[in-house]
């Protein structure tokens, strides 16, 4: 087959990911994570993440090549996350990708992490119909993206004005005494809880917010509301019903995320909505988005949970799309850009 064979390298946060794809076919998805080293701090420590990337980089590339049964010389492209993300962490991946590119002569593509979260869906569901709306929700970002052209024109319609959705999951998990990262634990606890137990606030949903913040999110008020609710319970000497609070909090997040993403699709005449990012692994978000997309006559797509969280396959998927679209490679001195949008 002559579809492009591309290796993708991801180091924007705490996952050292190396993926290899041919066209839309996933051949390898090697990951080393430093999440356990951050757990005791309750959040990712940038310096620790950078060092872990440096240690894991070469062995993870080697493992991906072995899994895919290819060599560096076979590659048509090397894609790497150039931003957004933690500056020091990004530099490790970008530096490694440039070294591999220079040593082998394989063209390099510095890519956007958010576009890669969208592109990964091609590995599961094939080419993305354009235009599409992407709801990207992770520990670092909560954005509604307009995907006019995955190879060139991906723009933000809205974003969180404070905490990212995943950050809210992680902070509320901490309040409830659940481990880090808290998203999966809240997801699990919520399955045994009552979604209507407390009616927590839906940020930026008031009529007055519809002009300026129509497609934006806010989760810090929600986190504070949960904290206050828990404090009041404890002050009364009562136990906190963890499953119910988890379910009610999760409902508030998923309600506003799905409502705004579907509104964006309807108002822009777009028929396809994609979910991506770590929080897109959330079972309630998937169920509610499915329900609401169906009611609105929209097509909803999302990849399997393992491809929602950070990985190298998503970067390789975007790289393969760029090669196939005939996009020119990056010039070798491109920078890591922690605030890329
Ligand atoms: O995309 P990702 O792996 O890394 C970033 O780019 O941030 O997302 C990690 C985030 C964490 O906040 C984690 O708690 C959240 O995704 N997460 C979830 C679930 N699985 C991961 N949040 C809610 N429900 C889940 N099942
Ligand atoms: Zn991410």
Automatic annotation (TrEMBL):
Biological-process GO terms, alphabetical: tRNA threonylcarbamoyladenosine modification
**Where does this protein hold Fe cation?**
113, 117, 310
Q: Where is the Gcp-like domain?
A: 25-316
Major localization listed first in the record, in broad terms: cytoplasm
Cofactor notes:
Binds 1 Fe(2+) ion per subunit.
Cellular component GO terms held in the UniProt record? cytoplasm
Enzyme Commission number, as recorded: 2.3.1.234
| Top-level taxon of origin | Bacteria
Catalysed reactions, semicolon-separated: L-threonylcarbamoyladenylate + adenosine(37) in tRNA = N(6)-L-threonylcarbamoyladenosine(37) in tRNA + AMP + H(+)
Q: Which keywords accompany this UniProt record?
A: Acyltransferase, Cytoplasm, Iron, Metal-binding, Transferase, tRNA processing
Q: Where found, per UniProt? A: Cytoplasm
Q: Name one GO molecular function term.
A: iron ion binding
* Enzyme type, top EC level: transferase
Concerning InterPro entries, the annotation shows:
ATPase_NBD (IPR043129), Gcp-like_dom (IPR000905), KAE1/TsaD (IPR017861), TsaD (IPR022450)
Question: Glycoprotein: is it a keyword of this entry?
Answer: no
Cofactors needed by this protein, per the record, are:
Fe(2+)
- The residues listed in the UniProt record as binding substrate, with positions renumbered to this chain, are 136-140, 170, 183, 187, 282
SUPFAM superfamilies per the UniProt record, alphabetical: Actin-like ATPase domain
Family membership: Belongs to the KAE1 / TsaD family.
Known function: Required for the formation of a threonylcarbamoyl group on adenosine at position 37 (t(6)A37) in tRNAs that read codons beginning with adenine. Is involved in the transfer of the threonylcarbamoyl moiety of threonylcarbamoyl-AMP (TC-AMP) to the N6 group of A37, together with TsaE and TsaB. TsaD likely plays a direct catalytic role in this reaction.
What PANTHER family would the database entry show?
Answer: TRNA N6-ADENOSINE THREONYLCARBAMOYLTRANSFERASE, TRNA N6-ADENOSINE THREONYLCARBAMOYLTRANSFERASE, MITOCHONDRIAL
Q: What is this protein called?
A: tRNA N6-adenosine threonylcarbamoyltransferase
Q: Name its species.
A: Glycomyces sambucus
